[in-house]
Every structure is written in C-alpha cells, then in structure tokens.
Amino acid sequence: MATTYATVTWDQLHRDARLLAETLIPRGPFKGIVAVTRGGLIPAAIIAREIDCRLIETVSVVTYDEEHQGKPQVVKAPTAAGDGEGFLIIDDLVDSGVTAQIVRQLLPKALFACLYAKPSGKPLTDMFVVEVPQATWVLFPWDTAPLFIPPLARKSETAS
Ligand SMILES: O=P(O)(O)OC[C@H]1O[C@H](OP(=O)(O)OP(=O)(O)O)[C@H](O)[C@@H]1O
Ligand SMILES: Nc1nc2[nH]cnc2c(=O)[nH]1
Ligand SMILES: [Mg+2]
User: Fold this and answer.
1) What is the CATH number of the domain that holds 56?
2) What are the φ/ψ torsions at residue 131 (nearest 5 degrees)?
3) Which of 11, 52, 83, 92 is catalytic?
4) How far, in Å, CA of 150 to CA of 137, rounded?
5) TM segments (predicted)?
C-alpha cells in the first residue's frame, strides 16, 4: 500500500497535547511522567506544564537498529519510576506498538498515553488523541522545514 503523509504543525501538536492533558487530569494526580525519548519529550513537556507535574523521567528504546539485528534495545531504563505506579508514560505516537509494549513491560503499573495512534498500536495505549491510518506516516514539526515552492505561473519554466 502506498504511504501517505500527515504533516503535524507546532500549533496542532500543542493543541493535541493540551487536549490529552485535559483528559488526563481526572486520572491523576501523577507522581511523575516518563517521557519516551525522543519523540515523547516535547509532548511530555507540554503535558507536564498543564497538569503541574515537575518530576520527569525518561526511557529510551531503540527498535530499528541494524547493529542489533532489529532486536529492540532499552538504552535508558526509567529507574526513578519503579514499577510505574502513579506514573504517566507519554510518547508522541504508537505505530506497530513495539515501543509501547516494551515500555509497558518495564512499567506495568503506569498509564500509557500518546497523541497519535495507528490501529496496530492502539490496543497498547490507555489514551490517545487522534487515530491515524496504518499506512500514513506522521511528519512531526521536528521532522520538517518550510520549503520554497515556485509560483504556479512559473511551473512550466522550471520544468523545461
Ligand atoms: O509503535 P512503534 O512501531 O514502536 O513506533 C512508535 C515509536 O517510533 C517513534 O520513535 P523512534 O523509535 O523512531 O525514535 P525517536 O522517538 O527517537 O524518534 C515514535 O516516537 C514512537 O516512539
Ligand atoms: N515520525 C514518525 N515516526 C514514526 N515511527 C513509527 N511510525 C512513525 C510515524 O508515522 N512518524
Ligand atoms: Mg519514539
């Protein structure tokens, strides 16, 4: 199936993170947040501000690493979060669900929330904001840059 792209702007990301924070408030208070690096760092910072949480731990899982023959590696464990009781895990998105599955195994008592969820990863989340089709690649603001596009009237000039 052909890949399509969904571009998320900074404004949209901020709005979606605030929406998630709103739904998280009744599930708290939380002892702390575990941000899944790197994609979960900015969503976690926005949510931490909204829910007034100052304790932030991180976990890092490398899933697509040829050196380790595709076997996921936990390169930073979320030690300060114990078994996850009272903690909130934040990532930007779930796709296959592999990252979420590993993080949940490390923190079985934590709540897992993310901004965007594809169908395969959706069952691994407790909460998300927007569902995205499996074949759609989400382009985050940190993945993209504004690009000059020539005016339509000059298109034939540039093509020739
Ligand atoms: O559900 P999955 O198939 O595991 O994919 C989801 C994960 O993939 C991306 O992280 P990535 O591993 O690309 O690293 P990054 O956050 O450092 O960019 C994204 O930030 C999620 O953490
Ligand atoms: N940026 C980005 N990273 C991913 N990692 C797994 N799926 C995705 C996706 O859709 N977008
Ligand atoms: Mg990630």
Assistant:
1) 3.40.50.2020
2) -85, 140
3) 92
4) 25
5) none
Closest CA to 73 of 62, 89, 88: 62
Which domain does 96 fall in, by range? 4-159
CA of 152 to the centre of ligand 1 (A): 37
What is the model's pLDDT at position 156? 67
Q: How many domains does the chain have?
A: 1
Residue 91 has pLDDT above 70, yes or no: yes
CB 69 within 8 A of CB 45: no
Largest Cα–Cα separation, the chain: 63
For ligand 2, atom 11, which residue shows the shortest CA distance? 138
**Interatomic CA distance for residues 29 and 10, integer angstroms:** 27
* 143 has catalytic annotation: no
Each residue's pLDDT tens digit, 81-90: 999 999 999 9
Residue ranges with CB less than 5 Å from ion ligand 3: 39
Give yes or no for a contact between 77 and 106, defined as CB atoms under 8 angstroms apart.
yes
Look at residue 65 in the predicted model and tell me its pLDDT.
66
Instruction: Tell me the two tokens of residue 102.
Output: 């590993």
Cβ atoms of 116 and 132 closer than 8 Å: yes
